[in-house]
User: Fold these one by one.
Assistant:
Number 1:
Amino acid sequence: MPRTLSVLSFALCIVSAGFFSLPAWADTQVINLYSARHYPTDEALYSDFTKVTGIKINRVDSDDAGIIARLKAEGTASPADVILLVDAARLWRGEVNGMFLPVKSKTLEGAIPAQLRAKPTDEGSAWFGLSTRARVVVYDKLKIKREDVDTYEKLGDPKNKGQLCLRSGSHPYNLSLFGAMVEHLGAEKTESWLKGMVENMVRSPKGGDTDQIKAVASGECGIAVTNTYYLARLMRSTNPADKAVAERVGVVFPNQQSWGTHVNVAGGAVARYAKNQANALKFLEYLVSPDAQNHFANGNNEWPVVKGLKLDNPALLAMTGGSFKSELVPISAVGMNQIKVQQMLDRVGFK
Ligand code: FE
């Protein structure tokens, strides 16, 4: 939001004014960050970067769609240096719309597996995955049998009628899951699956992932879908009510016997018209450092993209025993299927 930026800039001026002994170049050590990461624990991530590098961060917070719309409106005048988005299809959209500046970095290429980066061109990669999250099924352990919800396909099965709660089908997390399903099942079967889920719904889609988990715990819904970090947050909460919610629900990583659980990626890019390109790249490289990756995994309950990091997160370990099978679907395919999926949602009346 413009207000956030101006407030931060103002605060930055005051801070700079206070440190009058800093050399003149210190004023230029900033990056303008457009971030769709909506996690309070990330504050430590940003302040640690500033502590380590001396580079200040002016942050603009919005959701993925808001950031993409803003970059489009600002065009070449955009002050953005770095962009963080939390969904594969949106990263893909930013790339095809030319909003990112492809960059080469041995650090990023060495740290991030190829399938979690934009396909490199001669200029480099347009974006880099920094963490992943699994989209899993939660169910009421008192009412639902685990084997009735151990695949995504079963969520549309008539035996689960009157049990299912979902957030909006048009939310990026669901659009990406459904887009991946098109790759696994084909368009026709995906559409009947979506129709089956609409028929199984307890209520019209509403709320976020945490609301779905709570609705299962309260008994309103038997089955829901959530990103893993929302459940992990409840499991690790110091609030007894949150813990009780987490204890009531079972969790399934779907499709372990077939193609694997749907995994989404949160990632970053240097903005196409970045004025502080070198600092922007420094920030992305910082995000694959052991400290930052540890923050994603143990602070925000995501999976790190860097191999070899010790997972020290009791909630993630409890959910999976440490590892699970994840699907391998090209992110470009998930991105390209979005429009098709939205049309299916409209046809089957999935709000
Ligand atoms: Fe989220």
Number 2:
Amino acid sequence: MTRVLVVEDDAQLVRALVINMQARQYGVDAAPDGTTALRLAATRQPDVVILDLGLPDMDGVDVIRALRGWTRVPILVLSARRASDEKIAALDAGADDYITKPFSMDELLARLRAAVRRTDNVPVVNGTVLVTTDDFSVDLLAKKATRAGRDVRLTPTEWQLLEILVSSPGRLVTQKQLLQEVWGASQSTKTNYLRVYMAQLRRKLESDPSHPRYLITEPGMGYRFEN
Ligand code: CA
């Protein structure tokens, strides 16, 4: 059974979440504040955490930082509309994904399934870690991308970006995370670099680069590999 820890102070929303998740065979614990959340995360060892950022006793981003001190459990953040700085801070602190309130239960459950899937083992075929789409495939071990049976020539920078994105399918990676990983911390404001390199990757991999299907931009936030 997949165990979910719901951290949310809105009792009505908690009730709706618990009912819907239990109906789908999830085991659910609920915490109304950050202190209880950190205690339950340690004692109940959830497989996924759903975390509201607006908690009565502490900032949700601090809950993420505290969790990331000792666990890689997927964290799905619930966040108020328009609070995009808050979402970015949450993702940079180590959250895996966010969903904006108000959300539909179907959307939340889909994100929850995606979060659980990402923690399942990456498929390893003959010692090769392969990510495949309808249009191209990426061999993370051989560091090779192939499209329509042909090798795609990628620069080291393009490869690094692609590797980070395809390693976490469905997950939003913030501009800051990408810039820090690829160019180092001092470059973390140069988002124009990212636009240039992402455009190149799309030209090389997407069949319609101006309407990307796999390398998706989340405006103002970052990028997501959809498979
Ligand atoms: Ca709240």
